[in-house]
Write a structure and sequence with these properties.
binds nicotinamide-adenine-dinucleotide, Rossmann fold, globular, 6-stranded parallel beta sheet, alpha/beta, 3-stranded mixed beta sheet
């Protein structure tokens, strides 16, 4: 095992289980979360008194809500008095524009940035199966092999420029959000004609309409009425908005992006604090056509 020291900031739905997997592999990071580090720290982790304790480590992982928070935390790392950090690895979804700005700020302070958003939800973070979509220089990504292997079996290095990982992450979440919204509408249509949800899912899941919502989110979180996949609707709405913003800036096709942005924004406004699987309830508020 290398003698690199590690830090981890943000122990939420994704960060806490990913950090627990680092600890299980014998990598014991110094951890900090503004909502309470000690309560959220997995066994084996070193609880930081403040962010400055994390900035005294070599490589720091982040799992934070959005680009604004990541930029603010990186500014605090840069300003830390006994800073030792040489690499920051961001597991958050921030979008390519924010990743570019964060990369520039860190580079000015002599810190290498690896953009490494993840996909697979809290269940994947716990199981160690999340997809890690890294972008950054070859040597920096290669140096992360040990901790990356500890958090996931699905590691991809998609490009040399931080932000390229965000591009792939955003297009993935746009597809996931679209599948969740479209499946909600389709299931409502079937229910309205007297077909049971279980029957609809059984048919679709061995047919051409099968998707991540029909195969995973509906059986686990919607049909069970648990509605707690561990991914806030506000965060999915952020991802769809970031995707649409980038697509519009690029002048790329955006018809479905526009429809998804309108729908997810309206649902998030109507259902503050909801899990993203509750889009099914929002769609259902219009009735099922019965
Ligand atoms: P979360 O809200 O559960 O966790 C974020 C954590 O960051 C919280 O514990 C919060 O207290 C902490 N935090 C906020 N500001 C902080 C600060 N200034 N300093 C230290 N800690 C701070 O969110 P999450 O669901 O774990 O998502 C984290 C990131 O991963 C987001 O960017 C999200 O879009 C992305 N993501 C989430 C999922 C999912 O299924 N939940 C999947 C893939 C990617």
């Amino acid at each position: 095992m290398s003698d690199t020291s590690y830090g981890f900031i943000g122990l939420g739905n994704m960060g806490a289980p990913m950090c627990a997997n680092l600890c299980a592999a014998g990598i014991l990071p110094t951890v900090f979360d503004v909502a309470g580090s000690a309560q959220r720290a997995p066994g084996g982790a070193v609880v930081a008194d403040s962010l400055a304790d994390v900035a005294a480590q070599d490589t720091v992982f982040l799992s934070l809500p959005d680009g604004k928070v990541v930029a603010a935390v990186c500014a605090d790392i840069l300003a830390a008095p006994d800073r030792r950090v040489s690499t920051v690895v961001d597991f958050s979804t921030t979008g390519p524009a924010a990743a570019g700005e964060i990369n520039a700020a860190l580079a000015a302070g002599g810190i290498t940035f690896v953009d490494a958003p993840v996909s697979g939800g809290r269940a994947g973070a716990i199981a160690g199966t999340v997809t890690v979509i890294a972008s950054g220089p070859d040597d920096a990504v290669a140096a992360l092999a040990e901790p990356f292997d500890a958090v996931s079996e699905n590691i991809f290095h998609v490009g040399q420029t931080p932000g390229q990982g965000q591009v792939v992450k955003l297009l993935n979440n746009f597809l996931s959000a679209t599948a969740m919204a479209a499946t909600s509408e389709a299931v409502r249509f079937g229910l309205g004609h007297g077909v049971a949800m279980e029957t609809i899912l059984d048919v679709v899941n061995v047919s051409t309409g099968r998707n991540t919502a029909s195969a995973d989110k509906f059986p686990n979180w919607v049909a069970t009425e648990i509605f707690n996949a561990g991914f806030a609707m506000a965060l999915m709405t952020k991802d769809v908005a970031l995707y649409f913003d980038e697509v519009r800036k690029a002048g790329a096709p955006d018809d479905i992006g526009a429809a998804m942005t309108t729908l997810w924004n309206a649902a998030d406004t109507a259902m503050p604090g909801a899990d993203f699987t509750e889009i099914y309830k929002y769609v259902g508020a219009k009735g099922d056509g019965a």
